[in-house]
């Protein structure tokens, strides 16, 4: 749902100096309507605002302006912009509810309804269902989302391990045993005749060998039975029978037995034995012995069994009773021409003497067939050899060798000889030349020594004696006196012949930039951190001296215009900064609007012969007083920084302190009195008490709501600054985040929104950059938190040059000594023209005084001339004269002719008002 809310908050911003015949009333008569119940300070029926004043429109807490940065101005009686609509911020857009929680948007907040199993503000906490110890009997609880699982101790089961497992349920006791259940086990009582844990074992009653006199024992359940040997009886075969008769009567078992195949019978007591004829076996000699069973035939021979013997049929190449002999095929001397025979199974191999080949060495080898004679030599075949007749210029058995004409060492002075057919070539050592390298080369003839160096010729070289400031073998190198990095504190070293020059960054000076600088900062609502490192939080709503040179020369003054952050608020913010030097007053106002003497100027700007330089620098407008090495930067919103070199030690005064290294006397008033509170101290530095009588101190703010303070201190807000593993962790050990954290919590408490958060995060990032630490903005800037909106034809960059290329100085980035920081960078093909990025061919004009005009921009030069930039580098001017009913000066931000009160017109022509 979209809710339109208007809270016009009027911040009086003086844009002129002096008055003529009073100031006409020009109310913001087209102020938008607002919902019932909201203040309407800009209502034209209630208040009127003089021309040149501004009403500022600001959305209430929990709402954001639909288009733009949350503010709109009403200048000279008309609102600027037609998009003055506040939309309620949808805090649910960033999906803060985790783990499936449902988000309900509220004004300036939200509520999460968590899914089962989660709780917490953002449903970030998994409910621990194990906290109530649901698992019994020693079970272990494993927490799960919206539930838990019990892992039971041995012997228990059930969802909560409440049931003792009945181990007897499976009837583990066998063979009639009785089971008794125990915890995590059971006990079996076995029936007679069985044992074992489960009564699975039949007791072996035969184990004790109860059967005597050779009786055989057969085990039975809970008993045994003996089978007695002949002649015995009884349960255990303990009793003999027929003992006397067996002595008187013996039976001849051979009388009824026939041993086969010629076997002979031998009578035994109660039995017989057959002695078999050779080739037979068995109790009655009934079996023919298989003599082939032992595989007597070797080398693959086949065995045929016979009575009491066998016959082998041998494989080819073998003979003998058992095929044990390899037939010698070499016995017939098959190898010819002296070849050597090697016998093999069922064959032979001939090894021929050199010069012969073939299975039986019967062929004379043609050694010329391989063309062994090289380089055109002719081959003649012989037995076991050949003879080469070489072509002229070659020698060797194969004519492989070129006759070496280098053998006589013709090359002199270390030259290398390369043999060629019927000749040689000399490659000379460095420094020599000639067919035989007989001549020394004069290396100085080419004048190799540069930059005035003197050359001395040597064998195979030369030596250069260089003049001062040059080095190298040829004196070609200007000695880099910058190699030792003599320039300190980030100074840029420019090498010169036999010396160097240091170009120091703002705030440093000395031959080596060894002299330091001091920084005073103010940001937020506002928080002052003076040169000497103290802090105060003066909330005055007037214009004050921020920093001023109180030395004899009074080089410069920096003032700041503070205003309440909203009507009736207890806190203020810096809305304008003014730098006075060299007779100029440079003003930096909201939106980074720059004026000189109240007249708006387009950046970049150069004044006083280049001693006052004004330019965009990242998020800031930067004023550099180059001859003083003083730098003032302001972001056009809340943050201002003043940098002075050590030359101003003990010479400063104002809200930034006196820069003497002692924080105890920072609260010093203009008359030198040290006071004890920052309100008295702050009010003493009013620039014009008449415009702000008594200082108009703001009432002290009420105590911060506990819930708001807790939210401000949380890890997602101001707590980011102190998180060592967060986006600012790289800087914590270099720049103390505590002052920024304290200021951040203060601002969030009284702003009631994230503006204070962003202001303090930006201030800390800039402090880190000044200290040489780069904090990556993408790690803390998000679409929902502290976004940056860049103008057309540009894009956000984490490293935008602090000296961007501009139409007046397209090479500024290459010459920059300030490094880079976050900001908006022009797209390729575009360049800075004022605060816009334009195509390079649409750059404007720069006049003789160094003032830059955008194309189409018109400005008065005094009251006698008006100039317009009509195209790139083309300015057209015309002479003018003020009307008799007009006056010359600066009014409403314009320098030139202005009609007197009661007259209308452009100043050069004024008519009575109707």
Summarize the structure.
Helices cover 5% and strands 34% of the residues. The protein is built from 5 helices and 74 strands. It has a 15-stranded antiparallel sheet that branches.
Can you give a write-up of this model?
This protein is mainly beta and 914 residues long. Among the domains are: 92-126, Ribbon (Laminin); 369-402, Laminin, CATH 2.10.25; 405-440, Laminin (Ribbon); 443-478, Laminin (Ribbon); 516-695, 3-Layer(aba) Sandwich (Protein Transport Mog1p, Chain A); 702-786, no CATH class; 788-843, Laminin, CATH 2.10.25; 855-912, no CATH class. The protein has a 15-stranded antiparallel beta sheet that branches. A hairpin with a 2-residue loop joins strand 55 and strand 56. Helix 3 (706-713) packs across helix 4. Disulfide bonds join 59-86, 114-123, 152-161, 190-199, 228-237, 276-285, 314-323, 352-361, 390-399, 428-437, 466-475, 504-513. Residues 26-88 form the Sushi domain. Residues 88-124, 126-162, 164-200, 202-238, 250-286, 288-324, 326-362, 364-400, 402-438, 440-476, 478-514 form the EGF-like domain. Residues 518-693 form the VWFD domain.
CATH architecture of the domain at 516-695: 3-Layer(aba) Sandwich
Question: What is the assigned CATH homologous superfamily of the domain at 516-695?
Answer: Mog1/PsbP, alpha/beta/alpha sandwich
Overall spatial form: flat
Return the average pLDDT rounded to an integer.
82
**Span between termini:** 49 Å
Weakly predicted, low-confidence segments: 1-54, 68-72, 75-83, 242-248
Oligomer: single chain
């Amino acid at each position: 749902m979209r809710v339109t809310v208007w809270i016009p908050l009027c911040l009086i911003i003086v844009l002129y100096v002096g008055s003529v015949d009073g100031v006409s009333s020009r109310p913001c008569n087209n102020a938008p309507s607002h919902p019932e119940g909201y203040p309407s300070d800009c209502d034209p029926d209630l208040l009127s605002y003089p021309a040149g004043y501004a009403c500022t429109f600001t959305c209430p807490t929990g709402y954001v302006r639909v288009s733009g940065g949350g503010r709109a101005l009403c200048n000279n009686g008309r609102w600027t912009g037609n998009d003055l609509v506040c939309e309620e911020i949808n805090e649910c857009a960033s999906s803060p509810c985790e783990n499936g929680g449902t988000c309900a948007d509220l004004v300036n907040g939200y509520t999460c309804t968590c899914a089962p199993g989660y709780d917490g503000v953002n449903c970030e906490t998994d409910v621990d269902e194990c906290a109530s110890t649901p698992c019994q009997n020693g079970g272990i609880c494993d927490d799960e989302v919206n539930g838990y699982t019990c892992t039971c101790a041995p012997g228990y089961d059930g969802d909560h391990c409440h049931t003792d497992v009945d181990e007897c349920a499976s009837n583990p006791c066998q063979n009639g045993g009785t089971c008794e259940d125990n915890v995590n086990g059971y006990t079996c009582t076995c029936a007679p005749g069985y044992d074992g844990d489960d009564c699975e074992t039949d007791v072996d009653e035969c184990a004790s060998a109860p059967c005597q006199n050779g009786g055989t024992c057969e085990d039975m359940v809970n008993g045994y039975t003996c089978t007695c040997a002949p002649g015995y009886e009884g349960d255990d075969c303990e009793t003999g029978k027929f003992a006397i008769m067996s002595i008187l009567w013996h039976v001849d078992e051979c009388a009824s037995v026939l041993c086969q195949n010629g076997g002979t019978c031998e009578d035994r007591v109660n039995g017989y034995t057959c002695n078999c004829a050779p080739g037979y076996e068995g109790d009655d000699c009934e079996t023919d012995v298989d003599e082939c069973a032992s595989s007597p035939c070797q080398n693959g021979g086949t065995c045929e069994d016979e009575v009491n013997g066998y016959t082998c049929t041998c494989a080819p190449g073998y003979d003998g009773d058992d095929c044990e002999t390899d037939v010698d095929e070499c016995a017939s001397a098959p190898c010819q021409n002296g070849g050597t025979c090697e016998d093999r199974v069922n064959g032979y191999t001939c090894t021929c003497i050199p010069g012969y080949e073939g299975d039986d060495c019967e062929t004379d080898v043609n050694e010329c067939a391989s063309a062994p004679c090289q380089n055109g030599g002719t081959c003649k075949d012989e037995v076991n050899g050949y003879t080469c007749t070489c072509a002229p210029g070659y020698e060797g058995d194969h004519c492989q060798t070129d006759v070496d004409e280098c053998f006589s060492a013709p090359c002199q002075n270390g030259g290398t000889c390369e043999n060629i057919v019927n000749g040689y070539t000399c490659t000379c050592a460095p420094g020599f030349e000639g067919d035989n390298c007989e001549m020394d080369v004069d290396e100085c003839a080419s004048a190799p020594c540069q930059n005035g160096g003197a050359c001395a010729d040597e064998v195979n070289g030369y030596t250069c004696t260089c003049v001062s400031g040059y080095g190298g073998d040829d004196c070609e190198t200007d000695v880099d006196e910058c190699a030792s990095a003599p320039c300190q504190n980030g100074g840029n070293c420019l090498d010169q012949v036999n010396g160097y020059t240091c170009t120091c960054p703002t705030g440093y000076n000395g031959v080596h930039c060894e002299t330091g600088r001091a920084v005073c900062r103010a940001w937020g609502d506002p928080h002052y951190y003076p040169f000497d490192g103290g802090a105060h939080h003066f909330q005055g709503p007037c214009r004050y001296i921020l920093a001023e040179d109180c030395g004899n020369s009074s080089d410069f003054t920096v003032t700041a215009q503070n205003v309440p952050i909203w009507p009736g608020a207890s806190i203020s913010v810096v809305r304008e900064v003014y730098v006075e030097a060299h007779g100029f007053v440079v003003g930096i106002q909201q939106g980074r609007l720059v004026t000189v003497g109240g007249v708006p100027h387009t950046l970049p700007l150069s004044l006083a012969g280049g001693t006052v330089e004004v330019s965009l620098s990242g998020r800031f407008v930067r004023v550099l007083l180059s001859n003083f090495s003083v730098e003032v930067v302001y972001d056009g919103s809340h943050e201002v920084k003043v940098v002075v070199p050590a030359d101003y030690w003990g010479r400063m005064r104002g809200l930034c302190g006196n820069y003497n290294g002692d924080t105890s006397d920072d609260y010093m008033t203009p008359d030198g009195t040290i006071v004890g509170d920052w309100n008295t101290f702050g009010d003493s530095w009013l620039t014009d008490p008449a415009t702000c009588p008594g200082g108009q101190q703001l009432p002290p703010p009420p105590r911060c709501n506990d819930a708001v303070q807790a939210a401000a201190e949380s890890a997602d807000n101001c707590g980011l600054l102190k998180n060592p593993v967060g986006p600012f962790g790289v800087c914590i050990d270099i720049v103390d985040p505590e002052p920024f954290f304290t200021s951040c919590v203060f601002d969030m408490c009284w702003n009631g929104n994230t503006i204070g958060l962003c202001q303090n995060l930006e201030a800390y990032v800039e402090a880190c950059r000044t200290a040489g630490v780069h904090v990556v903005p993408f790690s803390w800037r998000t679409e929902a938190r502290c976004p940056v909106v860049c103008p057309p034809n540009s894009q956000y960059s984490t490293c935008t040059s602090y000296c961007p290329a501009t139409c007046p100085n397209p090479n500024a980035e290459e010459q920059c000594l300030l490094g880079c920081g976050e900001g908006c960078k022009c797209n390729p093909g575009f360049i800075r023209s004022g605060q816009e990025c334009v195509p390079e061919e649409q750059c404007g004009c720069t006049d003789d005084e160094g003032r830059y005009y955008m194309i189409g921009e018109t400005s008065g030069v005094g009251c006698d001339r008006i100039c317009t930039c009509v195209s790139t580098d083309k300015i057209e001017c015309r002479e003018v004269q003020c009307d008799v009913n007009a006056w010359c000066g600066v009014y409403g931000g314009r320098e030139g002719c202005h009609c007197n009160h009661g007259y209308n017109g452009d100043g050069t022509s004024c008519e009575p008002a109707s």
